[in-house]
Amino acid sequence: MPRMLLAAVIALIPSLAFAHTGVGDTTGFVHGFSHPFGGLDHVLTMVAVGLFAAQLGGRALWLVPLSFVAVMALGGALGATGAKLPLVEIGIGLSVIALGLAIALELGVPTFAAMGFVACVALLHGQAHGTEMPETISGLAYGAGFISATALLHAAGIGLGMTIGFAGASHRVVQAGGGTIALAGVAILGGVL
């Protein structure tokens, strides 16, 4: 029975994975805020950035998520101007895998390197959504909502990572979470290819 359940979940992931399909409302703060919760790729990426930051600790707790949010906003602005990046959907799928592996392997990189890594991921996410935003004040409100939700999901990942640590749970729990994120990324990427 567990294998059948796992197979069903994996089969559904590609259809649930990408919230940036170009359909639906992209106006106003509320739509922007709710949008990141509508795609598995968003939720996994944003929470993974927080988990990665918590794993690194120190200044990375705020610098890594801050770099993500700043570069995502830049990517959104680029997308809104019509700038296109090649293979964005594939890059987003690969980014979920890479973030999951960074957590699973406890990649102890310097904060500056982690900031650069998540900035690359953020550029893809931002550009994908910037292309969908209207060029009006409503589009700016949408972007503000999207950024707010992203920061909230980062905070959830940080909180989760720190709670596991404070509860005395093994770091292996966080590593397992990273591995699960990476596997979900493989399923997301499979849905794109």
Question: How would you describe the overall organization of this protein?
Answer:
The protein is about 80% helix and about 0% strand. The chain is mainly alpha-helical and about 190 residues long. The chain has one domain. Helix 2 (about 30-35) packs parallel to helix 7 and helix 3 runs antiparallel to helix 6 (about 110-130).
Category from helices, strands and their pairing = mainly alpha
Which blocks of ≥5 consecutive residues have pLDDT under 50?
A: 1-23
End-to-end Cα distance, whole Å, is 28 Å
Task: Please tell me what the overall shape is.
Answer: globular
What's the quick description here?
78% of the residues lie in helices and 0% in strands. The chain is built from 8 helices and no strands. Helix 3 (40-56) packs antiparallel against helix 6 and helix 4 (60-80) packs antiparallel against helix 7 (137-166).
In terms of topology, how is this protein built?
Elements: H1 2-17, H2 28-34, H3 40-56, H4 60-80, H5 88-104, H6 111-130, H7 137-166, H8 171-192
What characteristics describe this protein?
single chain, 78% helix, 193 residues, mainly alpha, globular
